[in-house]
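Would you mind giving me a polypeptide sequence along with per-residue structure tokens?
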Amino acid sequence: MASGKSLSIVQYFEGAESHKCGYCKNTVGSVSNGMWAHVLTVEDYQDLIDRGWRRSGMYVYKPIMHKTCCPQYTIRCRALNFQPSKSQKKKMKMLTRFLTKGEVSKEPGDDEAMESCFEIMGGQPSPELNKCKATEHDLTISGDDLDVEVPVQEIEKKKEEKESVDKGESSAYEPSDTTKLSTAGGATPTPHRTPKPGEGPDTNRPPCRKAKEIRRERKLQKTQHKAGVTVCPEAQSDAKSVLSEKSKANQPKSLEEFLSYPAGELKHRLEFQRFLCNSPLQEEYPPDGPDCGYGSFHQQYWLDGKLLAVGVIDILPYCVSSVYFYYDPDYSFLSLGVYSALREIAFTRELHEKAANLSYYYMGFFIYSCPKMRYKGQYKPSDLLCPETYAWIPIEQCRPKLEHSKYSRLNSDQNTVDENAVSDINNVHVLYKNRAMLYSMYTYRRLAFRDSDEDELVKEYAGLVGKTCAQKMLLYMR
């Protein structure tokens, strides 16, 4: 086992730990396994989070999914395919207006950081408040989302109808002389009646047209008028091709474009800096890795020279993992939680250009039973980790199962098993008296002091970390 490369050293705490849940407030409902990471390589931690583990400082824990009150599913976003939603774009536009014009949004901000200090320490706001915040965010609609044009005459007509109803007047249709004509068969035609509000559309009126179509038609007419041509199929075809070229140039902005600001004088200046920080993860600088290397980093956000927020991320061989994020609450109106998440997704894409395997953004845990934590599913496309097979399942396939039960085997293939399961604990690597050895050698040396409980500890540990980590990391034995 001699190697010039650093080895992970962990100390496993046998048995489950129960403590107060930060989501549903159950006093002993949160159940997890844990270990202390004295040293941890980025490769080993990547393997651990792909089995449902997560670190908080030096402590690494894994929820016992079928026992804990609020099952926590590891969630990752496929950063290379990510497109910001309308709600996320709206928040970025609000931030841009603040930086360029000094405008402050009247809408309340949110605290959608991937992980907050409250979440890690277990101190969450009340569930009722969480539900209100989640509902408020889910129902936020941008004015740009509404693409409807209502005729003024229709509005006035509805106002008159409402006034007549309020005065007690009959709203029944009174046919005019022209509508009382009989047909050849003697039958009276059914008169047209304007429907009351809420009864449905007026079938005698032409269908509504989208504002985009009307604007496109007007632009086409202006183009023809300026060109001084008669409306003919050829002219229409040419004008449409011109508009088509313009529409191609007006493609939706990319994430990187939303995170950049227009050139010119700014009312406020938001700066972004990154520094290495202390953690159990060992720094690595492989030749095929990113220029900044792998490890743990602080990302600092400065506004006009003032420290505004700090995010902690782990850069690993296959992902950027968001650890936690904290910010000045006086600036919650800037939606810094959303901004930091989008910034980290863009950073993942940037790292991918140098490290081809690094293409995912890990957002911590997705807790469907807690409405406050469902927002992570809005960063699409994303996947959840199956707690039994450790396969990644698209979140759209998981939602129906989580609606039915808060704990679920997300993988629908019942024949799939954990391919990284440990079959022989004798091959587990341990650290005993500052010497690395196989567990079989450890039991041989400790034959006279053999403790059957140690076998159970090693078996439990190996089952949780998986075969790959069990044969690379060193389990500290006293």
About this structure: The radius of gyration is 31 Å. The chain has twelve helices and 15 strands. The first strand starts at residue 9 and ends at 19.
